[in-house]
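Input record, target 12 of the design panel.
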């Protein structure tokens, strides 16, 4: 009876998901990148203000988000949605980030572009270089805000990959997942509150953003991501009249289609010690969980990175190596291997010439 009920739920979710009204849609596992559901996912389409995911990412990667700039006429003279910037206003990079991801400010995007790139066109070049770096092969940016322009396009698949990558940046994620933010800008700066346009932040369990968008040409565009129990689902719809409900259904589908697998490492037991009061030490390495579609479980693998020897002294808990966890050929997680006990240095170790050479070699390999 339980199996019948579960099957009914899954079938119900699938019906809703495949009944999306979007011109293009995709659901991916944000951790592994595996595609769970897609519809016209590689068709090049305009993406409106979801463009600001890239603009905001580049801003979030700047070294100093407390940097303050003064707004020029060129920066704030732009149509559409706004965070309320005026000529002469002083605003920080931090507040521009929130102005883009909450209020969808075209003025914030323009100001960011000119401040970082020197001009909108030069910043578009930076955006396209970043897209190339991320292998977004069906994406091309012309504007930092997402206002319609010839040659400005992406695909649902590329946009999902971009969102998953952007969410790895803590500053980006913090802003994208904020429903409201208290900011301070102006001339002189004064406090004001911005509210996120993404209403699913208050109605869907585990939502962490990401970005809304709309123009007459693109229609309603939406990128969302949700996290539960260490996994992440990313959904993109382009030109979707019923995007809020479609995203709830597609997120549900994503979580329903993946399964948890717990992995314990073999071969992480002991490490040989030189010049210590013990010849080897016990090691500790946490097990880890993966969430993938059942048919993709065999694509999870790992590689243990440990030196053959380690020189004393070693404190309990010290990191002495790590494990790379892969989904296909992509590293999805790094896990530390630590010492489970102390090792003291011998007072008068008999170190041979070979030991000295080996010691230098091991230090080099550890730092590689």
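The sequence produced for target 12 reads:
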């Amino acid at each position: 009876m339980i199996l019948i009920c579960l099957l009914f739920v899954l079938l119900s979710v699938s019906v809703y998901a495949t009944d999306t009204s979007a011109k293009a849609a995709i659901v991916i596992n944000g951790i592994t990148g595996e595609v769970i559901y897609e519809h016209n996912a590689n068709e090049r389409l305009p993406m409106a203000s979801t463009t600001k995911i890239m603009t905001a990412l580049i801003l979030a990667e700047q070294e100093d988000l407390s940097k303050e700039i003064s707004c020029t006429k060129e920066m704030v003279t732009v149509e559409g949605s706004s965070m309320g910037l005026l000529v002469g206003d002083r605003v920080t990079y931090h507040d521009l980030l929130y102005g883009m991801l909450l209020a969808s400010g075209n003025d914030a995007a323009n100001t960011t572009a000119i401040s970082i790139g020197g001009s909108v066109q030069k910043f578009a070049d930076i955006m396209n270089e970043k897209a190339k770096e991320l292998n977004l092969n069906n994406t091309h940016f012309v504007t930092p805000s997402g206002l319609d322009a010839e040659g400005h396009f992406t695909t649902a698949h590329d946009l999902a990959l971009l969102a998953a990558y952007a969410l790895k940046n803590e500053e980006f994620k913090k802003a994208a997942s904020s429903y409201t933010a208290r900011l301070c800008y102006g001339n002189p700066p004064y406090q004001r509150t911005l509210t996120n346009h993404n209403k699913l932040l208050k109605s869907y369990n585990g939502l962490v953003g990401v970005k809304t968008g709309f123009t007459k040409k693109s229609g309603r565009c939406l990128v969302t991501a949700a996290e539960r129990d260490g996994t992440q689902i990313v959904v993109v719809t382009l030109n979707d009249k019923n995007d809020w409900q479609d995203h709830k259904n597609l997120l549900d589908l994503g979580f329903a289609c993946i399964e948890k697998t717990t992995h314990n490492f073999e071969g992480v037991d002991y490490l040989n010690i030189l010049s210590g009061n013990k010849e080897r030490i016990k090691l500790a390495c946490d097990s880890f969980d993966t969430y993938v579609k059942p048919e993709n479980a065999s694509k999870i693998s790992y590689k243990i990175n440990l030196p053959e020897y380690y020189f004393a002294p070693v404190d309990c808990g010290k990191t002495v190596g790590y494990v790379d966890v892969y989904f296909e050929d992509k590293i999805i997680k790094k896990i530390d291997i630590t010492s489970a006990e102390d090792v003291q240095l011998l007072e008068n170790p008999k170190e041979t010439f070979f030991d000295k050479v080996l010691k230098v070699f091991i230090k080099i390999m550890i730092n590689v």
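The mean pLDDT is 91.
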